[in-house]
Amino acid sequence: MPTDWFNALLVMGGMYLAAANAIALHRDKKVRGVYWKAWVFYSFCAVWDIYYYKSVGHPWSVAAAVLLSVATIAWLAMAFRYRKN
């Protein structure tokens, strides 16, 4: 399972960065200089990872992918809400 742990660590790094962006967006309440379609794609990838990691038996990566999905979808929801600001 070391590959699962290492992969989960990488995914958690992505979750940390996505969460930091979501926190900054919540604080600023402005969407500027961001190509939002990349976030849509990244969110779909994060959701797909949940299914994929489960199918290959990587429970730590599944947990990390769930957290990444929450962070990216939270960012998208706030970006949609603050798009006019």
Report the sheet-strand fraction.
Answer: under 5%
Classify the fold: give the CATH topology.
Monooxygenase
**Overall CATH class:** Mainly Alpha
Helices and strands: which structural class? mainly alpha
Euclidean distance between termini CA atoms: 46 Å
What's the number of structural domains?
1
Characterize the largest beta sheet: strand count, sense, and whether it forms a barrel: none
Instruction: Supply Rg.
Output: 14 Å
- Unreliable sequence segments: none
Number of strands: 0
- What is the annotated CATH architecture? Up-down Bundle
The helix count comes to 3
Q: What order do the SSEs take from the amino end to the carboxyl end, as H and E?
A: HHH
Report the mean per-residue pLDDT as an integer. Answer: 94
- What percentage of residues falls in helices of 4 or more residues? over 70%
Dominant shape: elongated
Explain this structure.
The protein has 85 residues and is an all-alpha fold. The chain has one domain (2-82): Monooxygenase. Helix content is 84%, strand content 0%. The chain contains three helices and no strands. It has helices spanning 2-28, 36-55, 59-82. Helix 1 (2-28) packs parallel to helix 3 (59-82). The radius of gyration is 14 Å and the shape is elongated. It starts with a helix and ends with a helix. The mean pLDDT is 94.
Q: Which helices and strands appear, and what pairs or packs with what?
A:
Elements: H1 2-28, H2 36-55, H3 59-82
Helix pairs in contact: 1-3, 2-3
